[in-house]
Amino acid sequence: GVAISKACTLGIARTFQNIRLFTDLRVLDNIMVGLHARTRTSMFGTWLPTPGAIREEREAEVAAVHYLDFVGLLRFANDIADNLSYGDQRRLEIARALAADPTLLLLDEPAAGMNPQETADLMQLIEKIRDAGVTVCLIEHDVKLVMQISDYVYVLDHGELIAHGTPAVVREDPKVIEAYLGCEEDE
User: Fold this and answer.
1) Is the four-CA dihedral 167, 173, 179, 185 of positive or negative sign?
2) Which pLDDT value is given to residue 38?
3) Which distant-in-sequence residues (6+ apart) come within 8 Å of 113 by Cβ?
4) In sequence order, which residues have a C-beta less than 8 Å from that of residue 119 and are 6 or more positions away?
5) Active site residue: 56, 109, 160, 184, which one?
């Protein structure tokens, strides 16, 4: 795999299937951690803050507030991350990934464990991210979510590519219907 620092320099950020937050830190501080990958302050500068380091810290806090507002979590900025609902923890993880200022955001099973309302809110957030100019690569088993939100879909079955194309094309593919969509007709 590619080192996280290298991925950041390539403009790639990601989330994980299992939420990985600093649960004992404030919501704002979780975003600040993501922003430190973009700062120039050395370890020494954090121990003995220079005017430049202080300015960078203030700028990082302003940026963190922006990302929290973008994902709808600004009102929780000073709360401990562990106190957020599951859906809000997922949004916080996405905000922290966005703090790396990616051109490509990889979301690994972002809807896993979400209730229908949280999933609907997630879809709106993904659309908002896409509309802000970030390419979103979604790895997801929720077929309805994928078909509703995606511009282009690749379908894997047991690790093998069985179809790709627009959602309308993929939805009609017999291999996809057999592997994933057959049960949807009963709903």
Assistant:
1) positive
2) 55
3) 86
4) 111, 142, 145
5) 109
3-class secondary-structure state, position 93: helix
Q: How far apart are CA 72 and CA 84, in angstroms?
A: 12
User: Has 172 been annotated as catalytic?
Assistant: no
Q: Which amino acid is at 79?
A: D
Using alpha carbons, list the distances in angstroms from residue 98 to 31, 70, 152. 9, 10, 22
Average pLDDT, the chain: 85
Look up residue 50 and give its DSSP letter.
-
Segment 33-47 mean pLDDT: 59
Which tokens belong to 119?
A: 């999933």
Task: Indicate the pairing of strand 135-139 with strand 160-165.
Answer: unpaired
CA–CA gap between residue 94 and residue 110 (Å, rounded) = 9
User: Which distant-in-sequence residues (6+ apart) come within 8 Å of 16 by Cβ?
Assistant: 93, 108
Amino acid in position 22: F
Residue carrying structure tokens 């007709």? 185
Could you read off the pLDDT of 50-82 as tens digits, one per residue?
777 778 788 889 999 999 999 999 999 999 999
Structure confidence by residue, pLDDT tens digits, 91-101 = 999 999 999 89
Q: Is residue 34 within 8 Å of 74, Cβ to Cβ?
A: no
Task: Name the nearest CA neighbour of 151 among 136, 172, 129, 132.
Answer: 136
Q: What is the pLDDT of residue 187?
A: 42
